[in-house]
Design brief:
By secondary structure, the chain is an all-alpha fold. It comes from Neomicrococcus aestuarii.
């Protein structure tokens, strides 16, 4: 028998209290989770197109991350919890409550956004998403085993091992179509490798943010700090490239108004996930976000360059979604069904 929403989240609505048999349908919030997941490839599309327009993906990423930082900063300063978190940050920095290398979470975020933008015209957003989800999940399992996450050490269960195998199969199947794309872009294989690397690092970033969130007691403040570090990182890279007279260090055109939408989309993705977890629980929220990202990436590839989309990419996305569902199954249920 499946658990009700009240049993999963620990909170019951007034109507549910009046009628014990009433179980609110998760369909609508799950649809919102999928929609939020689909915003990630849209953000990559905007940054990629902004990079083409401006003549520099670097400055397109600065526009996106800078906009997000300003919005998060203003939002956090307008709330008592946010102001307390910023004040708490001074003590955290002085007393080294969390290691200072946790600032690398922002560097990882900057690299992720630039690689996603580069994937648009090379490997495609669908293959990029499969690589990200596969490597992020597999590396998360390693982190759980080592105990780096805030939740401590977690055992490698049978369904997680099965999920890892399915993720590798999905990534291989989806990436098998990269060969045809390589004929149009010599950077295809480079972006593919970078996508796998940054996907593995995202789980490290998530663990760092988890520890930082506990210390600051504010997700908004931690996310703002990440965006600030990301912007500073890109500006330093820009200065180095300018000294070396690399054309990518200079923007040829100013950004258009819709280029600034990439930052708010990223914030909406994060806040939607945080909002829906108490309603759906981590399981359904995670499945909704990941499924939306994968399917949204595939649809955008069809819209941007339908001639490059292959059956292998569709199969790879389907296998990856299945792997995420398997990884999310509670251990007891998995054993009973076996």
């Amino acid at each position: 028998m499946s658990k009700s929403l009240e049993e999963t989240t620990g909170a019951a609505s007034p109507r549910a209290q009046q009628s014990p048999s009433y179980t609110p349908s998760p369909a609508l919030p799950l649809a919102f989770a999928a929609f939020a997941g689909a915003l990630m490839p849209v953000q990559g599309l905007i940054v990629g197109r902004a990079g083409t327009h401006m003549g520099s993906v670097l400055w397109a990423a600065v526009v996106s991350l800078g906009t997000a930082f300003v919005l998060l900063l203003v939002t956090s300063l307008f709330t008592a919890k946010g102001r307390q978190a910023w004040a708490r940050g001074v003590t955290i920095w002085k007393e080294r409550t969390i290691p200072r290398y946790f600032l690398l979470a922002g560097v990882i975020g900057a690299c992720y956004l630039m690689i996603m933008a580069a994937a648009l015209d090379t490997i495609g957003l669908a293959i990029f998403a499969v690589c990200i989800v596969a490597m992020r999940t597999i590396s998360s399992m390693v982190i759980d085993i080592k105990g780096f996450s805030p939740a401590g050490k977690q055992p490698l269960t049978r369904q997680r091992a099965l999920s890892a195998a399915l993720l590798l199969v999905g990534a291989i199947v989806a990436s098998s179509g990269a060969g045809a794309r390589a004929e149009n872009s010599p950077m295809t294989w480079v972006v593919l490798v970078l996508s796998a690397i940054i996907g593995a690092l995202l789980s490290v970033q998530q663990s760092m943010n988890g520890h930082a969130g506990k210390a600051y007691k504010s997700t908004t403040t931690v996310t703002a700090i990440n965006n600030l570090v990301a912007v500073v990182t890109l500006l330093i890279i820009g200065v180095i490239l300018a000294i070396l007279h690399v054309p990518a260090a200079f923007a040829q055109q100013p950004p258009e108004w819709w280029h600034f939408l990439a930052g708010p989309l990223g914030i909406l993705f994060v806040t939607t996930g945080i909002t829906l977890v108490p309603i759906l629980g981590s399981l359904l929220t995670g499945i909704g976000l990941v499924t939306g990202q994968l399917v949204g990436s595939l649809l955008l590839d069809y819209l941007v360059a339908p001639e490059h989309v292959q059956v292998t990419e569709v199969l790879g996305v389907a296998i990856t979604v299945l792997a995420i569902i398997v990884a999310s199954l509670p251990t007891q249920r998995f054993i009973k069904r076996r």
